[in-house]
Amino acid sequence: MTPLQLLLPFLSLPFFLLCGATTSNQIPKHHVIYMGSSLSNGNGRVLGAEDAAESAYLQMLSSIIPSHEIERISIIHKYNHAFRGFSAMLTETEASILSGHDDVVSIFPDSILELHTTRSWDFLEAESGRLPSNKYQRGLSSDVIIGMIDTGIWPESSSFNDEGIGAVPSRWKGVCMEGSDFRKSNCNRKLIGARYYNVPWTRDGNQSSLARTKGSPRDSVGHGTHTASTAAGVQVLNASYYGLAQGTARGGLPSARIACYKACSDVGCSGATILKAIDDAIRDGVDIISISIGMSSLFQSDYLNDPIAIGAFHAEQMGVMVICSGGNDGPDPYTIVNTAPWIFTVAASNIDRDFQSNIVLGNGKNFTGSAINFSDLTRSRTYPLVFGKDVAAYYTPVSEARNCYPGSLDPKKVVGKIVVCVDDDPAVSRKIKKLVVEDAKAKGLILIDEAEKSVPFDSGIFPYTEVGNIAGFQILQYINSTKNPTATILPTVDVPRYRPAPAVAYFSSRGPAELTENILKVIFLSLAAMFLG
Fold it and tell me: Of 144, 137, 166, 60, whose CA–CA distance to 104 is shortest?
């Protein structure tokens, strides 16, 4: 075949497509340059000065980045303690050239990873035959240090009170970084360290920039505070969720110390930044690293391009256990993430308690629903009951009205009534459905949702509950069987000794792993099943 014949298929393509592809490849994006194990002396200290390593990294960048783009010859993150490497802004062409360097193991674009109880731990211990003991009393401190890589921490939480805890272990080498809303005094003998990072983000799909997180380790999302208290929160008496599930809240090891590494924001987590946090945590002296974060189950990378797998591998080599969440993309198979053999992967489960908001129909039938609502409705009064498709706005497709799409319901037909919606289309979340019905001045919402019925949704004071397909079918049958169907939705009650439990949560990702099908390793723990747990 002649060179011209080879070019013919490409010459037939639109010119703007060819130019667009070329231009896209030349847009600098944040990349991780991974260079393997660090040169340490056995004590975790890197031999040689860090500035020498940085100089070598800058020289590598200078050899491939044009001189007129000198501002890009800079390092965003350096990895010098448990492993070697750095991150920088590179085009695809530059990354391809640099990948041939003798010292480079792999180069990959920075990925944006996703953020993946009072009775949980006592229940799990009882199920395993272990009973709570005095070791959980606040007066007994521990030198175990857990590094939490997440969205930060809210230090004023009672879960991080250091009353009765001994001095900070002398081997601790970490810091407590200050910020506009975080002081060194926010750290204590329980929360012994806190760091935050600058996070690179891709904006508008055509350029990357270094965006500063709010200059503070403080948690503005809540995820990091939740995971930290779940792992090691001290005992907090009379804890409840607005009166629900009252009891003594504590973490899995209340005597452990906590070190916070804020590597995430409300829009996700930079893989390059997570690598930096892992590197820092190992140098600081943590014993365990907890990461409730992961890549999308749809776009899993091999281990040489997975930042958590790389960081966890070197942590394990340094004697630091890494515990990761398995993901929230269940119940389909092959959805589990963080599956590298050297990672302790954790699933979500239920415990022996449920939150129920029951439905009473006008014909006297009762149905058990799942929700958290604090409404003031009672059994003594019922309200007109309608199906979403029967109260659709003009020119609205039936499929949208039955799913309670925004703008799909006629407020005049909805006001004062309890609306039944289904979840045929996952494009609209149950939170949006609730807001649509509430905004139309409805009296309440019954959602038929088989997938999410086991994960109670908090609707505040708005009457709301969820049922599965079987109960939902019977409710719709009732609506069609009478001219004036009515119902009421009762406020939530917590139900103790609920069975079966423990059972893997419906939303929790399932194996086997795509990369290691022969390794079955998930442990069913209630680390993230419910925010109350």
Answer: 60
